[in-house]
Write a structure and sequence with these properties.
The chain has nine helices and 13 strands. The protein has a seven-stranded parallel sheet, with helices on both faces. A two-stranded parallel sheet has the order 7-10. Strands 8-13 form a two-stranded parallel sheet. Helix 3 packs parallel to helix 4. The relative contact order is 0.14.
């Protein structure tokens, strides 16, 4: 049995898709706390044995009493809004809940894989290297909550405190793809471009407030959600295969190649068979000073851990997303 928290979210539900379709694993327990009225549709194509609210999970785990072997806990659940201002909520959801799951997995010797974020890198002044994270300075409470847990996990290892037999944290860069529709403002620029083009014929991107970046040329490491799922399942497979043990640690999940928002928006419009039309607008005040102008994952550590598959190109990922999901009658993966 595999437990997936945040299993009704974008990445969690696509991990479930990968486990269902690629590995034939239907013995999944999906854990989430659905608040968006349409988010349940991320689960309609999934095969799983139980759905639990996040507040029910520990009772379920403690009540299992070894009756069913749990192969891994894949912890994608979190408050993921970079605009969340209530830090107490972030502490409870993103730190304490994760610490409790880490502790349970350590006690019961269950592999543990969790979502961190590229938001931990802040403005990028300290680089995007997952080998050392000590000097990182996140730009918002969400990023700091993820950074705090990364530091805490590494401290457990350094101080020889209890830890899961196999574990990994994943610093996701700019993930786009199917099943993100409930994320509203926090959804990817690919999704927002598709919707704006449908309604207005064009896309509005933020103007640049930095002289060395032209409007629309702010850059991100855009990574397709199916690649993210493939990487996590790779680590899961290593952790459950004694011949190829999982290399514990924190890993960047990106392509290693930054692309501009203009590139992304243009790829969406080309996939819709539209001529690119882009206008530029002022950046909202709540993002000014807290906005990353360039991100690019260093993926050398990920490659060294044995993940050797090529990443989906921006153009191919956008094409799959737009033509096989967004333009389909059923847009859910």
């Amino acid at each position: 049995m595999i437990v997936i928290t945040g299993g009704a979210g974008m990445i969690g539900s696509v991990i479930a898709w990968h486990l269902n379709k690629k590995l034939g694993r239907n013995d999944l327990v999906i854990v989430d706390h659905i608040t968006h009225e349409e988010q349940w549709q991320n689960l309609v194509h999934r095969q799983y044995i139980e759905y639990l609210d996040k507040d029910q999970l520990f009772d379920f785990l403690d009540g299992n009493d070894g009756d069913v072997e749990i192969d891994a806990v894949i912890h994608m659940g979190a408050i993921s809004a970079t605009t969340e201002r209530d830090y107490n909520k972030l502490v409870e959801a993103n730190i304490h809940y994760s610490q409790d799951l880490w502790g349970w997995c350590a006690e019961h010797e269950v592999p543990f894989f969790y979502a961190s974020s590229a938001a931990t890198y802040g403005d990028g002044a300290a680089g995007y290297d997952d080998v050392s994270i000590d000097k990182l300075r996140p730009l918002n409470g969400y990023g700091y909550s993820k950074h705090f847990f990364d530091q805490w996990a590494l401290r457990q290892v350094a101080e020889n405190e209890p830890q899961p037999p196999a574990w990994a944290g994943f610093k996701f860069f700019n993930v786009y793809g199917p099943n993100e529709y409930h994320k509203e403002r926090m959804a990817s620029v690919a999704f927002h471009t598709f919707n704006q083009v449908k309604t207005t014929g064009g896309m509005k991107l933020f103007k640049s407030n930095k002289a060395d970046f032209a409007d629309g040329m702010q850059m991100r490491d855009f990574v397709y959600v199916k690649d993210c799922a493939d990487i996590i399942v790779h680590f899961f497979d290593q952790a459950t295969n004694t011949k190829k043990p999982c290399k514990n640690g924190i890993y960047n999940i990106g392509t290693g190649k930054a692309r501009s928002f203009k590139d992304l928006a243009s790829a969406v419009m080309h996939s819709m068979d539209k001529t690119p039309h882009i206008d530029f607008i002022d950046m909202p005040e709540d993002l000014q000073g807290k906005y990353q102008y360039f991100t690019q994952a260093n993926v050398a550590k990920l490659r060294a851990a044995g993940y050797t598959k090529p990443f989906t190109s921006l153009e191919d990922g956008v094409k799959d997303y737009v033509q096989n999901y967004l333009l389909s009658e059923d847009k859910y993966c």
